[in-house]
Amino acid sequence: MNFLAHIYLSGDNDLLKIGNFMADSIRGHSYDVYPMEIQKGILLHRSIDSFTDMHPIYRQSKHRLHEKYGHYSGVIMDIFYDHFLAKNWSTYSDVKLEVYADTFYHLLKDNYEILTEKVKSMIPYMFARNWLLSYATIDGLQMIMFHMDHRTKNRVDMHESIVELHQYYSEFETEFTLFFEELRKHCAEKLKELNF
After folding, report:
1. I need a labelling partner for 155 at 20 to 30 A (CA). Which of 15, 67, 68, 167 fits?
2. Which residue has the higher pLDDT, 113 or 146?
């Protein structure tokens, strides 16, 4: 799952959201310098990633991309799944996506000093291009893919995966819907385990 799903699956706790959002830039046990809610967000993120990577529905989706995009098929699939979450946002939240995204951007600004350097360098682009809202449209998705290509030095031309998105759109969306219900249940259990 990509940024939008990780934030959404954190529930209503602001520091948990921040920890989940920036977890990829924190290695090993170095998270223990952060406040407890941030630490729990990082642990939730890792649990989401493990559950996702091993899930047969997600692997079925990713398999369609693997031959052409190799290692990056997972990166692309995470972004595709965020697209389906954004597209169907009203199914999962009563708050409009525009408002939800804007509220999260303000949360990052208000807690800027706690963010990792990697996240600090990324968020100006995220804010300027409104990534969380951009997931909802194909054009927005393509813009995100071009940015990912730039970050990965155009190793596999991820932006071309929009072709596969169109080709298998209904299959991907069905798989996302089934998978996301299971992931939400998994996260609810993990949050109980973390005392949230």
Report:
1. 167
2. 113
